[in-house]
Specification:
Elements (H helix, E strand, L loop, with lengths): L1 E7 L3 H12 L4 E5 L5 H5 L2 H17 L19 H25 L3 E4 L2 E5 L2 E4 L2 E10 L3 E3 L10 E2 L1 H4 L9 E4 L3 H12 L5 E4 L10 H13 L3 E4 L4 E3 L2 E4 L2 E4 L2 E4 L3 E3 L10 E2 L2 E2 L12 E3 L10 H15 L13 E3 L4 E6 L2 H7 L3 E7 L4 H6 L5 E7 L5 E8 L2 H13 L4 H6 L9 H10 L7
Parallel strand pairs: 1-2, 1-6, 2-3, 6-19, 8-15, 9-10, 9-15, 10-11
Antiparallel strand pairs: 4-5, 5-6, 7-16, 12-13, 13-14, 17-18, 20-21, 21-24, 22-23, 23-24
Helix pairs in contact: 1-8, 3-4, 3-6
């Protein structure tokens, strides 16, 4: 049987590409070794955010009395990991069924097994040879293997989502959004986590302001964070100088490395990831690589955008090249979101810029909700005020960043931000306020 396209991997890159290909009438086959939805749906994006939402809800209930809600005995509150996990898995199951329904609706065929790429036009799975016009590799990435000699269990998020209980004194190892989110989760649920950050910065790719915020917050909360220091682990005891920490499990949140399918000929690699051109083509004609496996980004929404792009390219449509303007979201408490350039990148490029910021402490809706910790920072060039980057630290930052992304995609300026009428009271009003600051017409400042 011959296909127009064979997609290897069913994560956000692969399953979105398959839906689009099916909708367009391409004869499409998805080969997935185990999980429909990939890491994102099964133990990454969706389950971890569901767990964080449970943790935030639990933490927020403790302040119910200040909102006029009496009768809650906070000393009797406890966090039920298993119930929170089951809730996360039920959300996962619903979304996976949705993907499978859409595949069926658009005549996308699926085979469970490990794909072996013999050439751009021949793939083997379960000892069956599949012929195709195009191959799309969407096999994703996984954390680097943690080689620590220890007597405590070491697990990654995939394993954690299958556990019926979790450590009460976990060591979260790694830097980046996943590590910060997991440390935040355990902290919000009254565990006693230790965060071991093996290298700087804490949040690679994010503005120094966001990195400083995270470190300052952990110091303010007197949390156990070990940053760029010598340490030893013997048995269950982590030693850092004169300080010792007893741990009962290690959560591996190391930086990620590409998962490569078996191939007769390996495409050109760059630092372990498949090198692609601006159309996501590998060094082998008619083989594309999208999502984490190409090393451009490990964000699900970027992976999906690449999948859509490649299918349109195969269809003969020449879409506009992806701009690289996409949000980076962190779902901690409070949330952190960023799009565009960082202040450090602008300095390095020699671009004249200005920083306009507005604090949530002056925002009515944030005060009403009891969530006034945070700030909006807009980076714009000084002459025409074009917006070059935005950083938001706020409870709903991961949703609010969409406005900044749209403005930047349209090459908008601080003038547009300042003159957009935002509903009152809303947290999003901070955009208008920061825009007014940028054009030297501050209103509530």
């Amino acid at each position: 049987m011959k296909y127009d396209v064979v997609i290897i991997g069913a994560g956000p890159a692969g399953y979105v590409a398959a839906i689009r290909a099916g909708q367009a009438g391409l004869k499409t086959l998805v080969i997935e070794k185990r999980y429909t939805g990939g890491m994102c749906l099964n133990w990454g994006c969706i389950p971890t955010k569901a767990l964080l939402e449970s943790a935030k809800f639990y933490h927020r209930i403790k302040s119910a009395a200040s909102f006029g809600v009496n009768g809650i005995r906070t000393e009797e509150l406890s966090f039920d990991w298993e119930q929170a996990r089951q809730r996360a898995m039920s959300i996962r199951d619903r979304l996976v069924k949705g993907i499978e329904y859409l595949w069926k609706k658009h005549a996308v065929q699926v085979i469970t097994g490990e794909a072996i790429i013999h050439s751009a036009h021949e793939v083997e799975v379960n000892r069956q040879i599949i012929n195709t016009e195009h191959v799309i590799i969407a096999t994703g990435s996984k954390p680097e293997r943690l080689t620590i000699d220890t007597k405590v269990p070491v697990f990654e998020l995939e394993g954690m989502m299958q556990m019926h209980s979790v450590p009460s004194r976990p060591l979260v190892y790694g830097n980046g959004p996943v590590a910060w989110e997991m440390f935040n989760f355990f902290s919000l649920t009254d565990s006693q986590p230790v965060w071991l950050i093996p290298r700087s910065p804490v949040l690679p790719g994010l503005d120094d302001y966001a990195n400083d915020f995270v470190l300052k917050r952990t110091r303010k909360e007197k949390q156990n964070v070990i940053y760029d220091k010598q340490w030893t682990l013997k048995g269950k005891t982590l030693s850092v100088g004169d300080s010792k920490y007893e741990i009962d499990g290690i959560v591996n949140c190391s930086l990620r490395q590409a998962v490569l399918p078996p191939m007769d000929e390996t495409p050109v690699l760059e630092e372990g990831f498949i090198k692609v051109d601006e159309d996501f083509r590998t060094s082998i004609a008619d083989i594309y690589a999208i999502g984490d496996v190409n090393g451009i980004s490990n964000l699900a929404h970027v992976a999906s955008a690449q999948g859509l792009y490649v299918i349109n390219r195969i269809l003969g449509v020449q879409p506009e090249h992806l701009t690289g303007i996409y949000p980076i979201n962190i779902y901690s408490e409070p949330e952190i979101a960023q799009v565009g350039k960082t202040e450090q990148q602008l300095k390095k490029s020699g671009i004249d810029y200005q920083v306009s910021e507005y604090n949530l402490l002056a925002n009515g809706k944030a005060l009403i909700e009891g969530n006034a910790e945070g700030v909006l920072r807009v980076l714009s060039e000084t002459k025409y005020k074009q917006v070059l980057g935005v950083l938001i630290i706020a409870p709903d930052a991961t949703d609010m960043i969409a406005e900044a992304t749209a403005i930047m995609e349209l090459e908008g300026t601080a003038y547009e931000i300042a003159h957009i009428i935002h509903a009152h009271p809303t947290v999003s009003e901070v955009f208008m306020e920061a825009g007014l600051v940028a054009i030297d017409q501050p209103l509530h400042k």
